[in-house]
Amino acid sequence: MPMLADLVDAVIGVDTHRDTHQVELAAPNGAPIATCSIPNTSAGHAQLLTWIGEHAPGSRIAASIEGTRSYGRGLARTLTTAGLTVIECEQPNRKARRGKGKSDQIDAHLAVLAALQQPADRLPTPRADGDREALRILLCARNELATAATANTNRLRALLRDGDDHDRALARGRLSETTLHELARRNSPRNATREHVVRYAEIRRLAHALNTHRRELKNNAAQLDDIVNDVAPALISQPGIGAVTAAQVIVSFSHVGRCHNEAAFAKLAGTSPLEASSGRTTRHRLNRNGDRALNSAIHTIALTRMRCCPTTRAYTARRIAEGKTTREVRRCLKRYIARQLYRCLTNTMATPEPTDRPKAA
Question: Which PANTHER family does the record match to this protein (predicted)?
Answer without folding.
Answer: TRANSPOSASE FOR INSERTION SEQUENCE ELEMENT IS1111A (PTHR33055), TRANSPOSASE FOR INSERTION SEQUENCE ELEMENT IS1547 (PTHR33055:SF16)
